[in-house]
Design a protein that fits this description.
The chain is of the alpha/beta class. The protein contains 8 helices and 8 strands, in the order βαβββαβαβαααββαα. β3 and β4 form a beta hairpin. α3 crosses α5. It is elongated and about 105 Å long.
């Protein structure tokens, strides 16, 4: 018989992590028994990816012992008809399987029932991690204790990278899943409540995001400060003084007997200037020190505009 070089997964024991009900928990578990050596006496192993194109490529690499299917993105999401987040219960999200995804979920559930092991091979980022977790929840992939469940991650679709990923499976990363859930909930809390305002004021169909909405508020607040600024006239007086060979300038900082001193009109400034021209100046003290000057930092967009 010809030698079978199809990559096989060794059995790997994992520990199930448990968190609160609204947080992701790791559901991956090893298959019972040792890794098989033949194909005829075993069910095929199921591999789930996101993209149908990736599924076809991966199927060519893994061989006949694997069934590769695609989730085509997320299979669960917050409902469109309501907020979908319980703000009074620690912002717990309520997910549903959209109508257009029910067939996908059922197809994956049926394929998992025929498989000995399920490998979650969604993208290696927080979205991909969340898709794997949603697949487990929506299709009940962790309900059969006799079926192995693993998460595999690869960053390139080459035989070597695939083999290495399947040789080193892991659990679903709950921290990545919860990070994606936090982003999704924040998107919903901001967008669901602000977008209708855009529909009324600008154009229907626009969506308010969690980042640009906050940035826009900062810009508006700053613009209101600028518009609310009250202009006030002020003057300064500088004197050019000299003694022997030394020349230096001095600025009027205050007036004896006055706690605060401001020149707010041209007439007042001219009066004080005339008085100073007739005054005698004395140098009270001289202090010498080294002064270090640092170059200005590089321009940003705002500082360049200020210049």
């Amino acid at each position: 018989m010809p030698e079978d070089n199809t990559p096989r997964m060794p059995t790997k024991k994992t520990t199930k992590k448990t968190t609160s009900s609204r947080k992701a928990t790791s559901s991956c578990k090893p298959a019972n028994g040792a890794a098989p050596t033949g194909r005829s006496s075993r069910k095929r192993e199921l591999v789930i990816v996101e993209s149908p194109a990736k599924a076809r490529t991966l199927a060519g690499i893994l061989g006949a012992g694997y069934e590769v299917t695609a989730s085509v993105g997320h299979v669960r999401d917050l409902p469109k008809s309501k907020l979908g987040v319980d703000v009074d219960n620690e912002f717990e999200p309520h997910y549903i399987v959209p109508r257009e995804k029910k067939e996908v979920v059922q197809r994956i559930k049926d394929a998992a029932a025929r498989a000995s092991t399920v490998y979650l091979a969604t993208d290696p980022d927080r979205e991909g991690e969340a898709i794997s977790w949603h697949l487990v929840q929506a299709a009940g992939l962790d309900q059969d204790d006799s079926r192995g469940l693993h998460r595999v991650v690869f960053h390139e679709i080459t035989p070597h990278a695939i083999q290495e990923a399947f040789d080193n499976p892991r659990d679903i990363d709950a921290a990545l899943v919860n990070a994606q859930q936090a982003r999704r909930v924040l998107d919903r809390l901001v967008g669901y409540q602000i977008s209708p305002l855009l529909w009324r004021k600008v154009r229907r169909g626009l969506s308010a995001g969690r980042v640009q909405s906050v940035a826009l508020k900062m810009v508006v607040d700053r613009e209101r400060e600028i518009l609310g600024f009250v202009t006030k006239e002020y003057w300064t007086i500088d004197a050019q003084l000299a003694r022997e060979q030394a020349e230096f300038s001095a600025r009027l900082r205050g007036k004896a007997g006055q706690r605060t001193f401001e020149l707010n009109s041209q007439e007042e400034t001219q009066t004080v200037s005339a008085q100073l021209k007739e005054a005698a100046f004395n140098v009270k003290s001289v202090r010498r020190r080294d002064q270090h000057r640092r170059p200005a930092p590089p321009f940003t967009t705002s500082t360049l505009q200020q210049e």
